[in-house]
Amino acid sequence: QSRKDDVVTFEELGIDRLFIDEAHYFKNLFLVTKMRNVGGIAQVEAQKSSDLFMKTQYLDELTSGRGTVFATGTPISNSMVEMYTMQRYLQYKALVQNGLQHFDAWASTFGETVTAIELAPEGTGYRA
Q1: pLDDT tens track for 90-127
Q2: b/e string for 76-101 if b means 16 or more Cβ within 10 A?
Q3: What are the residue ranges spanned by the domains of the chain?
């Protein structure tokens, strides 16, 4: 006799809407890019962000893109990557339809990479 876990999956819960408060806590979503040495592009990912992304994709299929609501006071605080990440959660299907599901394509459409000198965070000099 085999032992079976009595686990209820996300799909079996019958959820048809997610209301995410403090959505900025989920900004570390996996990101694939060819860009290097560009400020604001981190190659870190959080498991909670990947988990939420899978759930939003499932609910988008179930509700025709109306299954997720984000609430946050700071959706974008540091970089364009955060804007792209929020759009991936909330409008992934639109990104795919426009060929912008990959960050590099999205960034070349909506952004511009520039080299500029700025004041260092310590305030003691400059950095490029």
Answers
A1: 999 999 999 999 999 999 999 887 777 888 888 888 87
A2: eeebbbbebbbbbbbebeebeeeebe
A3: 11-127
